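Q: What residues go here?
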């Protein structure tokens, strides 16, 4: 089956599960409504798809895979709410709708982001089934590493710090690694960690998520520049206007795409047997490169 069809089918399944979890655990307060507004609102659920694919590779149950995905999508929703705030990237729209602080208020948006972050940790620490507590704790500790100063928050801080400055390609990649790749790294490797796979396979799964994330961010930057509001669901062309330092701004479009293609080829070469056994892994890596190239 074609990869986009698989992703869409999985999104429907995941959205149903996530909706149920949110409704079961949250009340009808203003804060809960703001949390739901930004979590059940049309995301592509790519991170959840990554979890489902790696779970299949290590035989993690689909219930646990769905719980981990709900945890990750909650972290992701928190990061988008905070990213849109006036003190961060200041966007009035997200996923084609008003951003959280525009729909509610700035204070509610900050709290909804905070509460979604905590909700994620609640899910991963209270609800997994038949998992060795030691592995579970290992996973929770790893998630703190992916979201904190060495992950999302650290990367976001660099993103803001680098605005309108001359920044090297190496530093931009480091920033992407933190602000975007870390959550993809967690998504793909969480099942490998829970199932106590070998050191080499866990390393492979972390690197796969990381490479996926770098390509995802580079192509997302290109889409921000060349797509319309309808296609990206937020204000287009903002990176350039805000003086964002992106790989696109340093290399230009053609070289940025070449960089993604080379990264993919090198990675596949390094882990030939994993790719041979799971051809979908290559389709996933080239998904966004194809998206960008079709538009060109
Ligand atoms: C305030 C402590 C504190 C931390 C903030 C905001 C933040 C941490 C991190 C944000 C990092 C960020 C927004 C990275 C961008 C990643 C990215 C490309 C998001 C878009 O992901 P998609 O395309 O979105 O998967 P959908 O809408 O499909 O879910």
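A:
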């Amino acid at each position: 089956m074609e990869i986009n069809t698989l992703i869409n089918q999985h999104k429907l399944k995941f959205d149903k599960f996530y909706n149920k979890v949110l409704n079961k655990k949250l009340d009808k307060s203003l804060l809960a409504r703001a949390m739901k507004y930004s979590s059940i609102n049309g995301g592509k659920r790519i991170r959840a798809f990554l979890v489902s694919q790696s779970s299949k590779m290590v035989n993690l149950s689909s219930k646990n895979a769905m719980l981990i995905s709900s945890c990750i999508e909650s972290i992701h929703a928190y990061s988008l709410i905070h990213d849109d705030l006036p003190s961060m990237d200041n966007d009035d729209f997200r996923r084609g709708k008003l951003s959280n602080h525009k729909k509610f208020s700035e204070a509610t948006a900050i709290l909804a982001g905070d509460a979604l972050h905590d909700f994620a940790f609640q899910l991963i620490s209270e609800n997994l089934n038949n998992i060795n507590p030691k592995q579970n704790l290992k996973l929770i500790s790893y998630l703190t590493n992916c979201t904190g100063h060495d992950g999302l928050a650290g990367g976001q801080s660099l993103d803001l710090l680098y605005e309108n400055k001359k920044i090297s390609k190496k530093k931009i990649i480091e920033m992407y690694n933190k602000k975007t790749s870390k959550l993809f790294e967690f998504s793909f490797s969480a099942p490998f960690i829970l199932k106590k796979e070998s050191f080499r396979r866990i390393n492979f799964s972390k690197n796969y998520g990381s490479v996926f994330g770098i390509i995802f961010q580079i192509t997302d930057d290109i889409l921000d520049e060349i797509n319309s509001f309808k296609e990206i669901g937020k204000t287009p062309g903002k990176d350039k206007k805000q003086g964002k330092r992106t790989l696109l701004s340093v290399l230009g479009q053609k070289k940025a795409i070449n960089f993604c293609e080379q990264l993919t080829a090198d990675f596949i070469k390094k882990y030939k047997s994993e790719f041979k056994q799971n051809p979908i892994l290559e389709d996933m890596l080239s998904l966004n490169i194809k998206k960008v190239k079709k538009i060109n």
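A: Context that may help when evaluating the design: The pocket of geranylgeranyl diphosphate is lined by residues 43-44, 46, 76, 79-80, 82-83, 95, 152-153, 156, 179-180, 217, 220 (CB under 6 Å). Strands lie at 93-94, 97-98.
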